[in-house]
Amino acid sequence: MEFIGTTILMVRKAGKTALGGDGQVTLGNTQVKSTASKVRKINENILVGFAGSVADSFALVERFTEKINMYKNNLRRAAVELAKEWRSDKVLRRLEAMMIVAGQEESFLLSGSGEVIEDENGLLAIGSGGSFAYAAAMALMSETNLDAEAVVRKSLDIAADICIYTNHNISVVTLGEPA
What we know:
It contains 4 helices and 12 strands. By secondary structure, the chain is α+β, with helices and mostly antiparallel strands. Strand 8 (97-102) and strand 9 form a beta hairpin. The protein starts with a strand and ends with a strand. The model has no long low-confidence stretch (mean pLDDT 89).
């Protein structure tokens, strides 16, 4: 059995970046924890959220933090270098996780197959409820005046109502202030 299920959503709007996730950890068909924190502020400029195997995710966050420090907060360079290492290293290649890394002006979805996908509309989502949260965030971004953090919270609540691997115990970290 593997630990599965989570929802992570990043929203950038009006000078603020918000990254949120639910707290559910599932082993097979059993919820084993409801208050996990899967989003982090690794310094004053960078946010990271992860989905997948817990140990694998922690290992990748640690590697990403090293890359951010090595490349002096150059988010794009750190993301590309981690993806290259993740894809080519025999041990890292087996890690089962995905990550969203975000700064004030750019954000990327990273995977073990070497993808470094930049957002094109201020939204990124991963995990079992990611598509639900993404769709909700798209609607909220175009139809409301909610700020980035409120869009993340509401979208994750909507995803939790739909996805059985997502709960309503939401954590959000932010950068910047609304304009």
